[in-house]
């Protein structure tokens, strides 16, 4: 299920969250767009809005969600 909020449209296609299925979790790595650099704002908005969507729409399907303040192994680098 994908939910698009009107305030999210300026961030559309700025980055991508790609799933990595692990034994005890689903990890999402962030990838930058081919046409725009991954900025700290884009990094923050994508993680924050994804967690917001989980809490609002599928709270019974997970017990914990978290984001990091900086890219982790496998994430694209923040530019600028």
Could you explain how this protein is built, in words?
The chain is an alpha+beta fold and 80 residues long. The chain has one domain. It is built from one helix and two strands.
Write a concise synopsis of the structure shown:
The protein is an alpha+beta fold and 80 residues long.
Q: Portion of residues in helices?
A: 10-25%
Beta-sheet strand percentage? 15-25%
Query: What is the number of beta strands?
Result: 2
Largest sheet data: 2 strands, antiparallel
Which characteristics define this entry?
two-stranded antiparallel sheet
Give the SSE layout:
Blueprint: E1 15-22, E2 25-32, H1 40-57
Antiparallel strand pairs: 1-2
């Amino acid at each position: 299920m994908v939910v698009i909020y009107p305030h999210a449209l300026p961030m559309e296609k700025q980055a991508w969250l790609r799933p990595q299925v692990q034994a005890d979790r689903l990890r999402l790595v962030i990838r930058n767009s081919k046409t725009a650099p991954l900025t700290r704002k884009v990094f923050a908005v994508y993680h924050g809005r994804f967690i917001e969507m989980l809490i609002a729409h599928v709270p019974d399907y997970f017990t914990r969600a978290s984001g990091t303040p900086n890219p982790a192994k496998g994430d694209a680098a923040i530019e600028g």
